[in-house]
Amino acid sequence: MLSLEALPILEDNYIWVLHDGRAALAVDPGDAAPLSAWLRRHELALRAVLVTHHHSDHVGGLPVLAADWPELAVHGPRRVAGVTHPVGEGDRVEALGTVFEVLAVPGHTLDHLAYLAPPWLFCGDTLFGGGCGRLFEGSPAQMFESLTRLAALPADTLVCCTHEYTLTNLRFARELEPGHPALEERWRRDSARRERDESTLPSSIALERATNPFLRAGEPALMALTGAATPLACFTELRRRRNGFR
Q1: Which among 19, 55, 112, 180 is annotated as catalytic?
Q2: Model-level pTM?
Q3: Among the options 19, 53, 54, 75, which is catalytic?
Q4: Is 75 considered catalytic here?
Q5: 19 is catalytic
Q6: Which of 173, 178, 240 is nearest to 209 (CA)?
Q7: Chain center to CA of 172
Q8: 41: burial class by Cβ within 10 Å (0-12, 13-18, 19+)?
Q9: Tens digit of each residue's pLDDT (9 = 90 or more) over 215-239
Q10: Is 58 a catalytic residue?
């Protein structure tokens, strides 16, 4: 039986930790110190790391963790310094008695990966609570295809992304669709969570399908709002507007 923990680090990142009470796996360790302290406190041995992409807030802790745990298996894109087991689309990672399917989800970066081990989806900066990642390297078409792929996962899949951006994303979504019932309910629930200093994550694919405008770019109302002729064009315009939203 595995337990899941979201460790807040840096300004708004999370390190996701799966553990069985003895050994642990960490996803996107952007800072080693909070993770190391948590592992010591719970008397857990770090056995594996999953990396979604190369940005420093996702990999910054790797050198210290590798020094502290010489046998550590680090899985991720080939370009990431410190990866000991390069993986890509269709590969499988076995850790803690669990098999993680590797999904290529380009857009935020060209070689961004996600890891699926139902019910958990570790999706880095591709799909966020109520939003999606910026396009630093990939094209709108790539990100749209990646999000469409994730949206097709089972409804009860848990979305374990790596930033606490949910309320800002929901403010943007509410401006697009004021009064949307599912969106308003999510806003009330997640606002209350943040007021209690709780995480809004993980989300679920079902909730994202219902409230995330980037997964709903084919909805007639959003297409009309953006003046788009296709879902991809609608997605592209939504992402452009989100870039300037604060």
Answers
A1: 55
A2: 0.97
A3: 53
A4: no
A5: no
A6: 173
A7: 19
A8: exposed
A9: 999 999 999 999 999 999 999 999 9
A10: yes
